[in-house]
Amino acid sequence: MKLKLFFIFLLAIFASAAFAAASYNVTLYYFWGDGCPHCAAAEPFISGLGQKYPFLTIEKFEVWHFPENALLFVNFSNAHGVDKKGTPGMFLGGQTIIGWDSDMAGARLETLINFCHENFCPDSWEITTGTSASHGSLAVRAEELVLSLPLIGAANLNGSPLALISLSIGFLDALNPCTTWVVVYILALFVLVREQKSLALLAAAFLLTYGLIYYLVLAGWLNPLSLIGYLPISRWILGLGALGAGIYGLLSLRNGTSPTGIANPVVIQSLLLLLIVFAFSVTILEYICSSGLPDLFGRVLASQTRSPLEAQLYRFLYLLAAMSGYLLVFAISISGVSALTQAGEKNVKLAHMLAGALLLFLALMLLVFPSALQFI
């Protein structure tokens, strides 16, 4: 009897040792966009993970050019409770990381990989398809609200007033690398128009369209990924618009006299529609390429606001900060272009020549090499 108990005891020890040594294969589902600079920054790190962790499988899905992958991204996001979508998006063990920062997102991702290798985690694909019993619970510390701010560095906003958090994340969102070319397009176009009332009308159309669409997205009333299919059409409209404006800018110099600004009402109305399409495209592109900042802001709102009205007010504050860059660009453009009329004939001709050449260059990029501008 004692011998039997001894063998049972030994068996229990070996069984517990085997259980403790158990390890699991891990699958990372990685959604990215061809032309997204955050995805390009993340790519070397993501590819290196496969070599660093032999037990890790990485499934990659490009979502900007493959609608079926974009739909899959939406399904993954919905199944994991992610309201705000952006690239890159990573799903592992029932957990989600949207956006990229090598210091924070990379460290968190490796923590998840090691945890799910040593402990059982549900597969994110099974969660999405409904074949997983539950999401499980991961003993991973919640990420701190730490932002990498230009000139300042890492700033921990935990415990800060929600207004400060809204403004900080919004200002960071305004520094979007995907649409820096937009400023050049706007400035060049405004040089050719020059008339203040027309400039104010065009600026208002852009800002109102941009603000409305982004607000709907922030509030969760509009899914930006559902609009990706319209971006190639708008790209052609913007490209042809830049082509026409660029040709006009150069042809206006042919008679040797000082070129006048665009005053034809029909042309102004066409430019008005162009700026509305422009704002639509820019809003969707910036959101997709926002490195997960709207998603982060949405999680902060969900945890710290007490009423829908309060949340809407903070969304408006975030949006105001996110639009600050364009507000500044339009203010400088209108005042600067107005001053151009008193700058002398030689300077006006030079400005028209540069504006026309820049618009023709942007037309070439939009129509032939859109990925160079991070455009779909």
The computed structural class is alpha+beta
Question: How far apart lie the N and C ends?
Answer: 75 Å
Poorly predicted regions: 1-21, 132-144
SS element count, helices: 14
Number of strands: 6
Question: Please, how many domains?
Answer: 2
In terms of DSSP E residues, the strand content is 5-15%
**What portion of residues is helical?**
55-70%
Rg value: 26 Å
- The succession of helices and strands, N to C, reads HEHEHEEHHEEHHHHHHHHH
Largest sheet: 4 strands, mixed
Q: Please state the average pLDDT score.
A: 77
- The general outline is elongated
Strand order of the largest sheet: 2-1-3-4
Q: If you had to describe this structure to a student in words, what would you say it looks like?
A:
This protein is elongated. α9 (231-251) crosses α10 (265-288). Strands 2-1-3-4 form a four-stranded mixed sheet, with helices on both faces. It contains 14 helices and six strands. The protein folds into two domains: 14-143, Glutaredoxin (3-Layer(aba) Sandwich), CATH 3.40.30; 166-373, no CATH class. Mean pLDDT is 77; it is low at 1-21 and 132-144. It is 61% helix and 8% strand. The longest helix has 24 residues, at 265-288. 36% of the residues are buried. By secondary structure, it is an alpha+beta fold. The chain has helices at 2-20, 37-52, 67-79, 105-118, 124-129, 162-174, 181-193, 196-218, 231-251, 265-288, 293-304, 308-322, 324-340, 345-368, and strands at 26-32, 56-62, 89-92, 95-98, 146-149, 153-156. A hairpin with a 3-residue loop joins β5 (146-149) and β6.
